[in-house]
Amino acid sequence: MRSGRRGDLERVGAEIGRAARGLGFFSVAQHGIPQSLVDAVFAESATFFALPAAEKERLSVANSTSYRGYVRLGEEKLDPALAGDVKECFNAGPDLAADDPDVLAGKPFHAVNQWPDLPAFRATLLEFHRAALELVVLLHRAVAVDLGIHERFFDRYFTEAVGVLRLLHYPPHPGTFDGRVYGAGAHTDYGNLTLLAQDTVGGLEVRKRDGSWTIVPPVAGTFVCNIGDCLMRWTNDVYVSNAHRVVNQSGRERYSVAYFGDPNSDALVACLPSVLGPGETPKYPPITYAEYLRSRYDATYTVAPSP
User: Fold this and answer.
1) Does 119 reside within a domain?
2) Is the pLDDT of residue 119 over 90?
3) Of 302, 255, 222, which is closest to residue 48 (Cα–Cα)?
4) For residue 264, what is the DSSP state?
5) Residues of the domain holding 196
6) Model confidence pLDDT, tens digit, residues 14-69
7) Which pLDDT does position 2 carry in this prediction?
8) What pLDDT is attached to residue 144?
9) pLDDT in tens, 181-229
10) In Å, how far from its chain's centre is CA 245?
11) How far apart are CA 226 and CA 38, in angstroms?
12) What is the DSSP letter of 85?
C-alpha cells in the first residue's frame, strides 16, 4: 500500500473488500508500527493495571465527559443479556489541553485525558496513538478504492479524529466457563476500523455467518483489524461489522491493545452512492458520528460520565 506502484493499492483494497464483505475481520502485517513500540505499550499497560485499585479509581471514566480514563471490572457490559464484563480498561483519546477551544466549547468527544503518575506512560501511549491513526487513514484509502470512490475520500473525516486507544486486562476466567460470564461479551465495534494487538494468551472469538464461533489466534507482528458499525452504515451494510467476544480460559492474565479508528465527531455518516445498486435506497438516515457514538456508549457503560 505504501509502495506507490500502480495497482498495489487496488490489490490490497480488493483483499480487504473480500474480508469486509465476509467475516468482517482480517489481519494487517508489515504495518510499519515498530514492534518495540507495541512492546512498550504492553509493558506500560501491565504496569498500570498492577497499580493499587485506589490509584486506578482516581482516574475513573465517571470523571470524564467522554469516557476517558479507567474502567473497573464489571463496569462495562457489552452484551446486555449477560453480567458485566470480566475485564478492566484504560481509555485515552487525542491529548487535548483543558484550554483547547474545542474542549472549552464542549465539542462532543473533544476532552482532556486522565493520566496516571507513571513516567513513560503518557508519551508511550501518545506515540502509539499517532502511529495507529496514520495506519487507519492508510487503510481507509484501500477501502475507498474497493468501494469505487476516490482513494482519499475518507481523509477529510480524520483531520480531528476522536479515535480512542484502549488498554485491556482480562483476569483468568474463574471456575468452569458456563457461557454466562465473558471477559468481553458478544458485541460489534462502533467506529470505522479497529486495530487490535493481542498478547500470546488468545481468547478472541468471531461469529461466523452460520452462527458458530471461530477463534482468532494471536500472530506475532500483526494487528487484527475489523469493520465497525459506522463503516457498515456508510456502506449500506455492504461491509459487515461482525460480532466478537473474549473469554480467557488460559489460566493466565490476558492483555490486549485496541485502537478504535473513529472519524471526526462532526463527520456526517451517510450512505455512499457508489454502494447502491439499481433501485436500492439507503437503509439508514444520515447522522453525525458524535450522535451515533454517544448512543452506543450510553448503552454500554453502567456509570454515566460527568455532565
Assistant:
1) yes
2) yes
3) 255
4) B
5) 8-300
6) 999 999 999 999 999 999 999 999 999 999 999 999 999 999 999 999 999 888 99
7) 85
8) 97
9) 788 988 999 999 999 999 999 999 999 888 899 999 999 999 999 999 9
10) 13
11) 19
12) P
Residue 29 in any domain: the answer is: yes
Pick from 72, 46, 45: which is nearest to 58 by CA? 72
- Measured CA to CA, the distance from residue 108 to residue 117 in angstroms comes to 27
Q: Is residue 47 part of a domain?
A: yes
Q: Are strands 88-92 and 164-170 parallel, antiparallel or unpaired?
A: antiparallel
**Separation of first and last alpha carbons in the chain:** 43
Is residue 27 in some structural domain? yes
Compute the CA torsion angle 101, 104, 110, 112 (nearest 10 deg): 110
- Residue-wise pLDDT tens digits, 129-152: 999 999 999 999 999 999 999 999
Residue carrying the nine cell digits 487503510: 139
Write out the three cell numbers for 253.
492474565
Identify the bridge partners of residue 254 per DSSP, sorted by sequence position: 170
**Tally of domains in the chain:** 1
pLDDT at 280 over 90: yes
- State the Cα–Cα distance between residues 89 and 108, nearest whole angstrom: 21
pTM over 0.90: yes
Q: How far apart are CA 256 and CA 242, in angstroms?
A: 19
Q: Is the dihedral of CA 273, 277, 279, 281 positive or negative?
A: negative
Neighbours of 270 (CB within 10 A): 14
Distance CA 152, CA 145 (A): 9
Question: CATH number of the domain that 209 lies in?
Answer: 2.60.120.330
The DSSP H or E segment spanning 306 is none
> How many helices (H) and strands (E) would you count in the chain?
7, 13
| Cβ neighbourhood burial of 120 (10 Å; 0-12, 13-18, 19+) | exposed
